[in-house]
Amino acid sequence: MPRVSLDTGSLYYERRGSGPPLVFIHGGWQDSTSWAEQVERFAEEYTVITYDIRGHGETGATAASEYSIELFTDDLEALVAALGLERPILVGISVGGLIASSYLGRHPEAVRGAVVAGPFQSMPSVVPFSDLNPLFSPVQGVKQMAATLGSAGAFRSMLNAMRAANGGRWLSRDRDVRAETVTTARAVPESEYSKIFEAMYDAEPVDLSGVETPLLVLYGADETGRIKRQGRRLADDAHHGRWLELPDAAHLVNRDNPAAFNEACAEFFGTLGG
After folding, report:
1. pLDDT value at position 124?
2. 110-114, 156-160, 240-244, 252-256: which range is least confident on average?
3. Which of 25, 105, 93, 98 minimizes the C-alpha distance to 59?
4. From the centroid of its chain, how far is CA 112?
5. Taking every annotated instance into account, which residue ranges of this chain make up the domain AB hydrolase-1 (predicted)?
């Protein structure tokens, strides 16, 4: 099982294909299998790397007492260095997109281009317990909920709160995809669930103003207005950024409309040169 060693654990990764390096970064409480259709599409042209963020999937729990976007970005740095990836293209969704944009902010000239999908940049205000007591930390509330309901129950409760606030099928338009996300979240240990939530809750938008690296922001037509605005702002701040709304898709845009997502990525990759 291929792994990259970290100070407090190790990252599980998979490598497919050959050509320029292309790294996919999954969203919170999911895992690298969520990129299956993108791996299938791009492995003939690129060296495709997928990996499980610490706390997720085959990477599993690590000894770090708390998680942060900075720590997740450190892990991506370790992966790129260990695999000797030269100027990779980064593609991230949701919190994976935040990690990609954080890495881009640190190393703008070391990345050929970046795609940020489902462009979450800071946690929406509506989370479980937030309306019950403004002095009660949502992080502590989620920790208690995960301990009581398990990771799947806590994840489902958060999605219900988001759906109540934003309406519609915010996470995905596909019932099977929504069910699969809950199953994947169930595999996350309760202690890891809380650390992941805290990293997302404490996240701050990345400042890409002045960054010259090409950036494409993708989101679904059914994405929340807040995240759409965050994505447009991210793209507008970058010197060579643009955003695109894809039809028939919600937050998990790569799974709701993989054909449109892959086509948009392929077109963008074709503009990046050698």
Report:
1. 59
2. 156-160
3. 25
4. 19
5. 20-257
Residue 233 pLDDT > 50: yes
Average pLDDT for the chain: 92
User: Dihedral of the CA atoms 133, 127, 192, 155 (nearest 10)?
Assistant: 130
Distance CA 112, CA 215 (A): 9
* pTM score, whole prediction: 0.94
Domains of the chain: 3-122+203-269 (3.40.50.1820)
Encode 131-149: b = buried (16+ Cβ within 10 Å), e = exposed. eeeeeeebbebbbebbeee
Give just the sign of the alpha carbon dihedral 36, 3, 49, 170. Answer: positive
